[in-house]
Amino acid sequence: MNKLKKTGIILGAIVLTLGAFWGVVNIIPPKKVLDSTNPFIAKDQPMISAHRGGAFLNPENTEKAFDHVIIETNYCDIVEIDIHKTKDNVLVINHDDSMDRMCLDDERKETEVTKDVVIKDSTYEELLQYNMGRNFVDRNGNKPYENLTIQQADEQNLTIMTLEEFLTKYEKYDFKLYLEIKEPNTEGINEANETIKMVHDLFSKTEYSTWKARTMIISFTDSLIDHIVENYPDLYVGALGYKIAPQLIGTALGLTTLIPSTYHSFQTQMTNSAGPITINCATRAMVNAAHRRNQSITYWTINDEDQMDQLIKIGADVITTNTPDVLAKKLGKI
Questions:
Q1: What is the radius of gyration, based on Cα positions, of the chain?
Q2: 162 touches 92 (CB < 8 A)
Q3: Other Cβ atoms within 10 Å of 185 Cβ, number
Q4: CA separation for the pair 219, 59 (Å, rounded)
Q5: Looking at the chain, which terminus has fewer C-beta neighbours within 10 angstroms, N or C?
Q6: Distance spanning both ends of the chain, measured CA to CA
């Protein structure tokens, strides 16, 4: 037998072995992240998540925005909010770590190193002095709340809202909550853990206990996700960013079973990068792989109608959008 033929036989055996291994791996079910029903897995059609309360409809993360998607309409299944902790330990709802983008000169950039009104360095009472609708631009290109006084902003529900106020006001309404912890690793995981404890203690109170079953804590901070899973097993948790990279790669390679996962929701953009690799996440295979773990899959932030159509077609569980009304029309809810 010549050397070339031997090499071919060896390579063929390797290919067959790898193929058999891959086949076995795909037959064996992966470990489920949840033994009971996952309420964030959709039944008939994707759930609509109003990003920051519907950021293109009203000033984001304001009571005005929440009133619209929770009380005035009934087509949103989930509301996504972001929280930070003030200097005097009040959990307030805002995306950025400062008030600058929302409330100050609109020529400022979110990425500026120097920020004037940093939430963690301000008291809650100090933050109440800002109009959160000041820089909002509506769909017609207008800025309807730019010149409001603070009293007028307060009357129109455009001053900063606390998490406790949110939980109190909207407890009786039927929707789920995505609650994003914003403190990143650079600020210290201890601060983020302290925030989680505050959230958990709030949910444990009788008047807020119903929230525990319909709230998912989400975060880009890997160590925070691990901390919640280990220390607060009664909370649902969703991962974003680098935390989902191993699962992305494993699913793309058809090796779902081999990649461990502990979080309840896999939250991703339609395409995602894992090092030098760009992965198409908007596929039926990606959805099916998540469901094999009893894990929901959420896509964000989807404002393009063609992308919405694609995600509806592949059976996405949740579509997070700034334009929930557009998605609601596609799903026949309005």
A1: 22
A2: yes
A3: 12
A4: 22
A5: N
A6: 73
pLDDT recorded at residue 110 = 53
- If you search the block for the tokens 């000033």, which residue do you land on? 59
User: How many CB atoms neighbour CB 19 within 10 A?
Assistant: 10
CA 30 to chain centroid: 24
Q: How far apart are alpha carbons 38 and 296 in whole angstroms? A: 7
Distances (CA, A) of 20 to 15, 25, 27, 69, 259: 9, 9, 11, 50, 18
- SS3 call for 52: coil
Give the residues of the chain that fall short of pLDDT 50: 18, 20-22, 24-25
Instruction: Please check whether residue 78 is in contact with residue 177, taking contact to mean a CB–CB distance below 8 angstroms.
Output: yes
- Residue 106: is it exposed, middle or buried by C-beta count within 10 angstroms (0-12/13-18/19+)? middle
Residue 181 β-bridge partners: 83
In order of 85, 161, 191, the CA distances from 187 in angstroms are 12, 23, 7
Amino acid identity, residue 239?
A
Rounded to whole angstroms, the Cα distance separating 226 from 219 reads 11
The tokens for 52 are 């920051």
Running DSSP on this structure, what letter comes out for residue 176? E
Residue with tokens 């031997």: 6
- Residue 188, Cβ density class (10 Å: 0-12 exposed, 13-18 middle, ≥19 buried): exposed
pTM beyond 0.85, yes or no: yes
- 133 near 145, Cβ under 8 Å? yes
Phi-psi region of 332 (alpha: psi -120 to 50; beta: other; left: phi over 0): left
Count of residues making up the chain: 334
Structure tokens at 29: 């079910």
Q: Exposed/middle/buried for 312, CB within 10 Å: 0-12, 13-18, 19+? A: middle
For 212, the token pair is 């525990």
Residue 133 near residue 158, CB atoms below 8 Å: yes
pLDDT one-digit tens code per residue, 104-140? 975 555 555 568 999 999 999 999 999 999 999 999 9
Question: What is the identity of the amino acid at 282?
Answer: A
Tokens representing 320 are 């997070």
Computed over every residue of the chain, the mean pLDDT equals: 89
